[in-house]
UniProtKB/TrEMBL annotation:
<protein>
    <submittedName>
        <fullName>Tripartite tricarboxylate transporter substrate binding protein</fullName>
    </submittedName>
</protein>
<dbReference type="Pfam" id="PF03401">
    <property type="entry name" value="TctC"/>
</dbReference>
<comment type="similarity">
    <text>Belongs to the UPF0065 (bug) family.</text>
</comment>
<dbReference type="InterPro" id="IPR005064">
    <property type="entry name" value="BUG"/>
</dbReference>
<dbReference type="InterPro" id="IPR042100">
    <property type="entry name" value="Bug_dom1"/>
</dbReference>
<keyword id="KW-0732">Signal</keyword>
<feature type="signal peptide">
    <location>
        <begin position="1"/>
        <end position="23"/>
    </location>
</feature>
Length: 319
């Protein structure tokens, strides 16, 4: 009897240890941002990390791994242990646009990542060097039509490139695309006049607006943003086809155990729906997008289908 009792005790201890080893989170969580510090992706990740840390009672740190238009940061998540303690926060550039616009990716953005929760959608703004003589979209389009290919736009992600391509299609002009390693470098080049334009969200460009080196002249879509209320939407500026709204989300390795993913989604959704996150949304003119798990996967699939149609119409082939 003593032997059986001892065996049951040992078995119970093993089960407890096994359960503890699968606890989440049992250490610091790292949010991998595959883009530059200071971009809207980075800023939102850092604000979210503070709120998430309070909810899960563990440290949450943000790490920026820049390069290859996000591929270096994404690969680092896949190379980490799939235990839920390393996640990626990115715009739809990586999971939606990269598979449609790039050849030879080192991973499959759809199959290799598991959706945790979507976060929010934001603006895309046509920004021009402040010293440019063109004050309106109409002025710029007239000049670009007179000199096809002369004007340039910088980009550091597939979303930024797609926005530039959409604008060209809508305006009936030809621009020259210039790739950059990071959005910060691209913004600096536009501010210095080395490149004419950049199509990026207003949060990422805000410091350049404030120091007067970059000027926003049109917002994609139909709505104005409180942070830049004098900037007309594309529908009013005469280029309604310039309509793109980047969105952001959290992803884990697809090898993460289902039980851990469930706990992650619960913690992340509670963070998304918290008053602190709502305040941050309001502050940055973001539209909350609290879709988790299968709901996020469906939203992603719909975006892939829509983007594929847009790219086919624009004649953009994977490169």
């Amino acid at each position: 009897m003593l032997k059986n009792a001892f065996a049951r005790l040992c078995a119970g201890m093993l089960i407890a240890v096994a359960g503890a080893s699968h606890a989440f989170p049992d250490k610091a969580i790292t949010i991998q941002v595959p883009f530059s510090p200071g971009t809207t992706t980075d800023v939102n990740a850092r604000e979210f990390a503070q709120v998430l840390s309070e909810i899960v009672k563990q440290p949450v740190v943000v790490d920026n791994k820049v390069g290859a238009e996000g591929q270096i940061g994404a690969s680092s998540v896949l190379n980490a242990p799939p235990d839920g303690h390393m996640v990626m926060f990115t715009s739809n550039s990586l999971p939606v646009l990269d598979p449609l616009m790039k050849k030879g990716l080192p991973y499959n953005p759809i199959k290799d990542f598991a959706p945790i929760c979507a976060f929010a959608s934001t603006s895309n703004v046509m920004n021009i060097t402040a010293s440019s003589p063109y004050k309106t979209v109409g002025d710029f389009i007239a000049a670009a039509k007179a000199q096809p290919g002369k004007f340039t736009f910088g980009y550091a992600s597939a979303v930024q490139r797609l926005a530039g391509e959409l604008f060209q299609q809508a305006a009936g002009i030809k621009l020259t695309a210039v790739p950059y390693r990071s959005s910060l470098v691209a913004l600096t080049e536009v501010a210095g006049g080395q490149v004419d334009l950049i199509f990026i969200d207003h949060v990422s460009a805000m410091s350049s607006y404030q120091n007067g080196r970059i000027r926003p002249i049109a917002v994609a879509g139909k709505q104005r943003y409180k942070a830049i209320p004098d900037v007309p939407p594309a529908s009013e500026a005469g280029v309604p086809g310039y309509d793109i709204h980047p969105w952001f989300g959290f992803y884990a390795s697809a090898k993460t155990p289902p039980g851990v993913l469930e706990k992650m989604r619960d913690a992340f959704k509670r963070t998304l729906l918290s008053p602190a996150t709502a305040a941050n949304m309001e502050k940055r003119d973001l539209q909350l997008l609290p879709l988790c798990g299968d709901e996020m996967a469906r939203h992603l699939a719909d975006d892939v289908s829509l983007t594929r149609r847009v790219l086919n119409k624009a004649g953009i082939e994977p490169q």
